[in-house]
Design brief:
Layout lengths: L1 H36 L7 H13 L6 E6 L4 E6 L5 E6 L5 E8 L5 E11 L5 H9 L3 E2 L3 E2 L6 E10 L5 E10 L1 H7 L9 E5 L5 E4 L6 E3 L5 E3 L8 H12 L12 E7 L3 E9 L8 E7 L1 H35 L2 H14 L14 H37 L1 E7 L4 E4 L1 H6 L9 E2 H6 L6 H13 L4 E8 L5 E12 L5 E10 L1 H23 L3 E6 L4 E4 L1 H6 L4 H4 L13 H13 L5 E8 L5 E13 L2 E10 L1 H23 L3 E5 L5 E4 L1 H7 L13 H4 L2 H17 L3 E8 L6 E12 L5 E10 L1 H28 L1 H27 L5 H29 L7 E3 L1 H11 L1 H6 L3 E6 L6 E3 L1 H18 L9 E8 L4 E8 L27 H11 L3 E6 L5 E8 L3 H8 L1
Parallel strand pairs: 34-36
Antiparallel strand pairs: 1-2, 1-9, 2-3, 3-4, 4-5, 6-8, 7-8, 8-9, 10-11, 10-16, 12-13, 14-15, 15-16, 17-18, 17-22, 18-19, 20-21, 21-22, 23-24, 23-27, 25-26, 26-27, 28-29, 28-32, 30-31, 31-32, 33-35, 36-37, 37-39, 38-39
Helix pairs in contact: 1-2, 21-22, 23-25, 25-26
Length: about 1000
């Protein structure tokens, strides 16, 4: 018994899952087929949204449908838990933020409800797998994007009418519905049925167990079956986790097993795999043995009670024998009373051959015939009532003596009233008639009662809700034997919808007639012989005719003579393909002989059993003239392109060249025809040193769609010389933002490059002169720095001689003194080395530079100047300042220049301390910032930028080149140099340089 129960439960669950899976597979097939069959514009997200909305409305077993395209965009429509239908879609049908909109009737997009996270369909598993395999793909279960409910997706590739892959469509199967279905299963008092996936997570379960729980971070997560709070699910899932082979049976029937649980004793369970196997789900049913033993105990107790009842029954048996004779008559009497009161009751069978038996048999036959008659009458009444309801036709009867009306149920419904017993007064019925129609109703009713005319009338009624309806009522008089009118019987029909349809049809006919007569478009109808059978006034007027002049004429008469054969070919082709629209462009001739171009769209159809062609003509004369002008303009533009002193090209969206001008061909020696592919390779055209940089920038522009700019050396075909060119390219986009073409040009900048090199060499010469000038100002400071170690060397040498002249010689003291001589000699050498490095004229060398160390070395060079001018010099250097990549000598020149300028600005300061502060720090933007701040005469706000101009100076003896050169050095290193006035006095000069990781800087300096 236990095994049969759990096996039946498992099979029932599998049937339910199979039904949902088949419905999903049917829906996804229809989705892919309809998108192709209905030729939906798959680039238009609104068109896709309308199609998905219509499909969802026709698939009650599907909750969500979606489509993702090759741009990463998404359109999805589905029902939320509150039954609201919404759209999920990305902007411009491309990868981006998912937004939720209301879904309005007909698939229109309503107001924005909220925005979700960024989304790219191309990275989703359902998209990748469906595109890769070209087949349907079931995803693993997941939590929803909008609501924390469990679902799985079935996706399929979508192709266009040419068989090209355009995206992936699919449906989302909401698995919460499975749990609701499981609740309806009878699995005993404590039994459970549940479904798990391959990872052991719950898909659905009976007993109110949710497959979703709250995680440690407060978010929704999926629930492991072995972690469920329900003891039966927890115990069974744990057993299957320990013995996975139990669930691995390949039998066609569910596998039944049992195990012991400390809390519930023996538990019987069954497992079965879900079809299709691609879902990799397992159905489990489990029932504790106690659920089966409890009914056994109840049966035992019931047996005891039944035994006692049997003993008691013998007591009353004798009494029953006495009443046996009277029972048939009593039953007949009761049945007769019940039938008389309208309650049907079957007559019990009596197997007796006496008078009582014959009476019972006759009574039974009579009641059966009566029952059949009554049932047939009820069926007829029910069919009549249903016919009234379907046709919206009711009946009425008017008693002319009392002026009371008897209505059918449908008549009550037509008047918007609840059916009730009794008659309806004529006054009450008249109150429901529209006030404007009461007089006509009264006249018609009076004439019908008098017998002057038959009662047949249409009028309006007003329901209690205020709604107006239109009814058609007709009836005839009922007379007695003497011919006196007794009553009137008739029908009433609600014809509101028919009247509205007729009105709509009339409006439509009037609208189409107005369109045909007054639309500024030419309409023609031509029969199979090519004769004009109809034309609108505008069409006739455009050709200079009246309508009557054109009807009956051959249609080819109004066409340019050279196009008449084409007219007849098009007409014949149109008649061969009934219902198919065709278009062409031809020339027509007006009555005055002038010509106009028209675009005709025609469709053939059968009207009154004869084929005709309906033609819509659009005057495209101006467009043709514009096209001709554009063609001439294009030819002129091409001529200009061929003569400009630049190389011009165009390329397809993927970067393949499809046009080059004459200058391009002459310089490179290449053309688009007859050139081996190897000659087009970048390695054959570009300088090897420029190739990698150029190609990386071009590939980046192709991927991002950003404009492309580069300077590159290209080999000239005539002599093999490389010349510098500046290349620029911009994309042309369509209305959807997609690139349709690249346009590029190259300008020869060889002469400019040579001029720039000459300028850079001149700037280097000038910078060298500035360094020498700066060192001239530092001469006394440097002499002081050198004299100090030299004086120490002399002093220590004399001391060493004295120690050696002692008797006995003090060799230890002499050794220490000689060590100090060596140290001071190195110290003097370092000073001289720093000066030589600053003055030496060398090429720029990029290497790792420690700005803090460079500042300290520079301070050592200006130590004499600082002391000579009584300046207090302080530093605040960041300990974690990253290195920069640059030329050490050039950057030291900038620091020395800024420090010397600060010292010179404080020469004449006497009323405040002379302070010079040098700081360094790391910026959040990844830049290293160095500032030199003084308390000198300061800067005027108008001069904060002018001080960096060449030959501008605020010093009588200055050249005005130092700061200009400093700015050019900093900007060449990718940085920025600027000045600010300092309150209440002084100025601050700051520069920032990009920092690099140690390994990057080291690599740059190698």
């Amino acid at each position: 018994m236990s095994e049969r129960l759990i096996r039946e439960v498992t099979q029932a669950v599998n049937r339910d899952v199979g039904h949902r899976v088949r419905a999903a597979e049917k829906a996804v097939s229809r989705l892919a087929n309809d998108l192709l069959r209905r030729d939906v514009a798959l680039r238009d997200r609104e068109a896709v949204a309308r199609e998905l909305y219509a499909l969802l409305a026709e698939e009650p077993d599907v909750d969500w449908m979606f489509f993702g395209n090759e741009a990463g965009g998404l359109v999805s429509v589905g029902r939320l838990a509150d039954s609201n239908v919404v759209f999920l879609m990305t902007d411009d049908f491309r990868a981006g933020v998912v937004r939720e909109f209301e879904a309005l009737e007909g698939g229109k997009i309503g107001r924005l409800r909220k925005s979700e996270a960024p989304f790219d369909a191309r990275g989703r598993t359902w998209y990748v797998e469906a595109k890769k395999t070209g087949a349907r793909y079931w995803t693993e279960p997941y939590l929803g994007l909008v609501e924390p409910i469990l679902g799985t997706s079935l996706s399929t590739p979508v192709v266009d009418k040419d068989g090209n892959f355009v995206g992936v469509g699919g449906i989302d199967l909401i698995l919460t519905q499975l749990s609701r279905s499981l609740q309806t299963l009878d699995v005993g008092d404590n039994g459970r049925a549940f479904i798990v996936d391959a990872s052991g997570h719950l898909i659905g379960a009976s007993g109110g167990v949710s497959p979703v729980t709250i995680g440690a971070d407060g978010g929704h997560v999926r629930l492991q079956a072995s972690a469920a709070t329900d003891p039966i699910i927890h115990a069974t899932a744990g057993y299957l986790g320990r013995y996975p082979a139990v669930a691995g049976s390949s039998s066609a029937e569910p596998s039944v097993f049992s195990f012991s649980d400390p809390e519930h004793g023996t538990i019987y369970a069954a497992v079965d795999g879900v079809e299709p196997a691609a879902l990799n789900w397992t159905i489990v049913s489990a029932v504790p043995a106690s659920d089966f033993l409890t009914p056994v105990f109840r049966a035992a107790i019931l047996s005891i009670g039944v035994g006692a009842a049997i003993i008691a029954s013998f007591v009353v048996l004798g009494l029953a024998v006495v009443g046996r004779t009277l029972r048939p008559l009593t039953a007949l009497t009761q049945a007769a009373h019940a039938i008389a009161s309208g309650e049907w009751r079957d007559v019990p069978k009596v197997r007796r051959n006496d008078e009582v038996g014959l009476l019972t048999e006759a009574f039974t036959l009579m009641t059966s015939r009566l029952k059949e008659t009554l049932e047939g009458l009820r069926r007829s009444e029910a069919n009549f009532a249903e016919a009234q309801r379907v046709a919206h036709v009711g009946y009425w009867e008017r008693d002319l003596g009392t002026d009371c009306l008897t209505w059918s149920e449908e008549t009550y419904r037509i008047f918007g009233l609840a059916p009730r017993a009794g008659a309806v007064s004529l006054a009450e019925a008249v109150d429901r008639i529209h006030p404007e129609d009461r007089s006509s109703w009264s006249k018609a009713a009076t004439e019908a009662v008098r017998g002057e005319s038959r009662y047949d009338l249409e009028y309006r009624i007003i329901r209690p809700t205020g709604e107006q309806r239109i009814v058609h009522s007709q009836g005839d008089l009922t007379r007695d034997m003497s011919g006196r009118a007794l009553s009137m019987f008739g029908t009433i029909q609600d014809i509101t919808e028919r009247k509205r349809a007729e009105e709509a049809l009339r409006d439509s006919e009037e609208q189409w007639r107005a369109v045909f007569e007054n639309n500024p478009t030419m309409y023609f109808m031509v029969d199979a012989t090519g004769t004009i059978v109809s034309v609108n006034p505008f069409g006739a007027e455009q050709l200079g005719y009246t309508v009557d002049e054109l009807i009956g004429r051959p249609v080819q008469d109004v066409f340019y003579e050279a196009d008449r054969d084409a007219v007849m070919r098009h007409a014949a082709a149109c008649l061969e393909h009934l219902g198919q629209a065709m278009s062409w462009e031809l020339r027509k001739i007006r009555k005055d002989g002038s010509m106009l171009w028209v675009r005709e769209t025609a469709r053939s159809m059968v009207i009154r059993k004869r084929p005709v062609i309906l033609i819509v003509c659009e005057d495209v004369t101006e467009r043709k003239r514009a096209e001709e002008a554009a063609r001439r303009s294009e030819e002129e533009l091409r001529e200009v392109i061929e003569t400009v002193p630049a190389m011009v090209w165009t390329a397809l969206p993927d970067g393949r060249i499809d046009f080059i001008n004459r200058r391009w061909q002459e310089f490179t020696g290449l053309s688009l025809d007859g050139v081996p592919p190897a000659d087009w390779e970048p390695e054959a055209r570009f300088h090897p040193d420029d190739l990698e940089h150029y190609m990386s920038r071009w590939r980046a522009s192709l991927v991002t769609g950003r404009p492309f700019e580069a300077e590159v050396r290209i080999r000239r075909a005539s002599d093999g010389e490389y010349r510098w060119w500046f290349e620029s390219a911009v994309p042309l986009r369509d209305e959807h933002g997609n690139i349709v073409k690249w346009y590029g040009f190259l300008v020869d900048i060889e002469d400019r490059k040579r001029a720039e090199e000459a300028l850079q060499q001149a700037q280097a010469e000038l910078a060298h002169v500035t360094r020498v000038t700066t060192m001239g100002a530092l001469t006394s400071s440097i002499a002081h720095e050198v004299n100090q170690p030299l004086a120490a060397v002399v002093t220590n040498a004399n001391a060493a001689l004295r120690w050696l002249a002692s008797q006995p010689p003090n060799l230890e003291e002499a050794r220490q003194t000689l060590g100090r001589i060596v140290r001071d000699g190195h110290r003097a050498g370092e000073v001289i080395g720093r000066v030589r490095g600053l003055l030496k004229k060398t090429a720029t060398v990029t290497a790792q530079v420690d700005l803090n160390g460079l500042i300290e070395d520079s301070i050592a060079l200006v130590h004499g100047e600082v002391r000579g001018h009584r300046v207090t010099l302080r530093t605040e250097l960041a300990e974690d300042l990253p290195p920069v990549a640059g030329d050490r000598v050039q950057l030291q020149q900038v620091i020395l220049n800024l420090v010397m300028n600060g010292i010179e600005s404080m020469k004449k300061v006497a009323d405040r301390p002379r302070e010079l502060l040098i700081t360094s720090k790391s910026e959040a933007s990844g830049m290293a910032l160095v500032a030199v701040q003084d308390t000198g005469v300061g800067l005027e706000p108008k001069d904060t930028e002018r001080v960096f101009e060449a030959f501008f100076t605020t010093k009588a003896e200055g050249l005005g080149m130092g700061l200009a050169i400093c700015r050019s050095i900093i900007e060449a290193h990718g940085g920025r140099l600027w000045a600010e006035a300092k309150e209440p006095w002084g100025a601050v000069f700051q520069f920032c340089l990009p920092t690099y990781p140690d390994d990057s800087v080291s690599a740059a300096g190698t």
